Amino acid sequence: MSSAVIITGTDTGIGKTVFSAGLTLALQASYWKPVQAGLDEETDSETVARLTGRPTLPEAYRLKLPASPHHAAAREGVRITAMSLPRVDGPLVVEGAGGRWCPWTAVSYTPIRWRNGRPRSSWWHGPHLARSITAC
Fold first, then answer.
1. What is the pLDDT of residues 28-59, one digit of tens each?
2. Are the C-beta atoms of residues 97 and 69 closer than 8 Å to each other?
3. Quick one: pLDDT band at residue 102, thresholds 50, 70, 90?
4. Spatial distance between the Cα atoms of 1 and 10, rounded to a whole number of angstroms
5. What is the residue range of 85's domain?
6. Would you name the residues annotated as active-site residues?
7. Residue 89 is part of a domain; what is its CATH number?
């Protein structure tokens, strides 16, 4: 069974995608961003694919509005439902949308079903952000 590392962080533009790309390359992993909110520019998946050349899985949800997933989904009439981590050969880097406490749906902060029970988290804080790396 492959392992997954989930990258989250507060706010847009703090480096989740670049960090995910570096980790994807270092681990020779596949990359997945389950929810992409904002399609006007290069998406996070497109950025990681360009920077790494590694396998990039398609997003489960592609929302036009660059906002918190639950707001973007509500405005676009989309219902984000629970999803399982995809099975891949080797490690998987998963980039979240927003921070750990950024809701993806009106009732859930993380609509991902874990394969092996609860995830293990490691948190560290900087002066303007909080980051989490979660291994499943």
1. 999 999 999 888 889 999 999 999 999 999 99
2. yes
3. low
4. 30
5. 4-135
6. 33
7. 3.40.50.300
